[in-house]
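Example record

The entry below shows one chain as it appears in the dataset: sequence first, then structure tokens.
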Amino acid sequence: MKLAAIALLLSACLVATVSATSSALPTRTVSYANQRVLSCEMTSNEGVRLLRNFVDSHRIDIWQDHNPMHIRVTGLQAALVERIPGVVCENYIADLEAAVVAHEAELAAIAAAPTAGWFDAYHPVDDILAYYKNLTVTYPSLISWVPSIGKSTLGKDIPAVHVTSAKGSNKPKFFIQCNIHAREWISSAVCNYLIDFLVKNYNVNSTVAAILDSQELVVIPVLNVDGLAYTYSNDRLWRKNLSTNKGSKCLGTDLNRNYPYHWNNGGSSSNPCDDTYMGTAANSEPETQASVNYFRASAPAIAAIDFHSYSQLVLRPWGDTNTNCQDETRFAKLGTNMVNTIYALTKTTYTSEKSIGLYPTSGTASDFFYADDSNNKGYRAASYTIELRDTGKQGFLLSPTQIVPNGEEILGAFLGFATDIGANPIVNA
């Protein structure tokens, strides 16, 4: 699909949405006093090794596991990191508590604005799900509501929606998953923007119509429903779910290290106090089980996207090895097309690369979605992790003013990707 055509469709065909923002605001109990976020450039292999050892031994919260690495540290830890040879650091967020306070003030100001629209703000989990449910009432021929695909750790329903037109039957699926990591608020906001556009522009946008006439989108709006709620009530920077861990005072499992493909194969932790704790076994967590089971129930899936933040990356398999996946050439081209579309629309630079990047990850959603081909009824899903805005200056505290531009560029990338993979899906011969 031509970039100019995508840009024209986005500018000309958007049906505006003006809805009151939620009055619910964060009421956190956690303080981030004496904490900062460093951006650390590793200038040698020894620097990579030493910084990784420091991060692992001190159980540092990694915000960007790349080069440069972004790490959340105390003042004392910052002084120690700056002594590591082969590592050059700068303050990205010099005072984390002040940054969170400013973030909360911005959210409060938007909530108080009488003319604010839905996509001018972030929203708590119950409001997000209510918005989707309202879409199913307003556009019943295009979007349907699945009340529960499974229960969370705390027993909450995890809903899904299906987006497709009434034309055709037995359509291949495009699986989309959002907010697996609690603090990544932009991920569910961009998913919301994408689905909102599709259902509201089906009748006026030929590209949207062609996609929904030939494919069925299966969307989990918020997978980590407990965790997202916890970022509003307790800890804005919480990442994991809220499972209890036997023998530990530390809560939570990293759901994106818990999938049943190459689980515990590097890039995850066996310590429940770490943010990348992989759980006691593959697929041990109820949220992961819900995602796995619904993905399999949705077969055949020709594509999948797991949305995250941040870093502006389009990541393809694999996460735990440098070995090319079977469809590396096709995946690399699709990824390049997406980043080119994004740049053409908003002049925002994303990078397309293998998920392994600088360090391995295992037990991830996107690797599982691709690898689970034996259950996918003759297809291999073109599976990506997309890390949304920004590149770290705001990080997980991304301003809500970024929701719409981030949504616009991802929408453009999605339209091109869905058109391409729909016309030529990957057959598992």
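Notes for this example: The chain has twelve helices and twelve strands. The longest strand covers residues 301-309.
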